[in-house]
Amino acid sequence: MRTLRKIYLDTNVLISFGDGNSDAGRILPQVISRQPLGAAPLFVTSRLTFTELMVKPLRDQDRAMASIYMSWSLSSSWLRVCDVGQNVLDLAPLLRVKQPRLKLPDAIHLATAITERCPELLTADKAFADVPALEHPFLGAVDLTPLTIIRPDEPTLTALLESMTA
Fold this sequence. Notes:
Layout: E1 7-9, H1 11-17, H2 23-34, E2 43-46, H3 47-53, H4 55-60, H5 63-72, E3 79-82, H6 86-98, H7 104-115, E4 120-122, E5 135-136, E6 140-141, E7 148-150, H8 154-163
Parallel strand pairs: 1-2, 1-4, 2-3, 4-7
Antiparallel strand pairs: 5-6
Helix pairs in contact: 1-2, 2-8, 6-7
């Protein structure tokens, strides 16, 4: 079995995760079930994710979905939930400058993935782009693991699943 690399999950992936009809909803549970016991969580996300996730259940007064999202908001064996710290907030505006299509919440997700040293970010959002290197005009070079954007499509998720048993 290969060494597992941390993968950052964007909000839209977690929305799809709750949908058994999507690729993410069908395949991610299999990935999670194959994660070795006692290993660090494979997936990482930000506390911001749950702020975004809760909007629809609150609007729809959907207690069942709100409960599911709230249970996911606690770090677990499969998901590490990170606070939005000063390093993330310092990096987010630079990412918006480098990738003008990013909205502030997306830049915070991307900055969290970078500060948490996730080599991959799983998202369906087309505004995201790979981050090979960064230079902050005031803070200098950003120490980061190059970040690749991957999509929650069947080939990508199936390859991830297969890599866990290789």
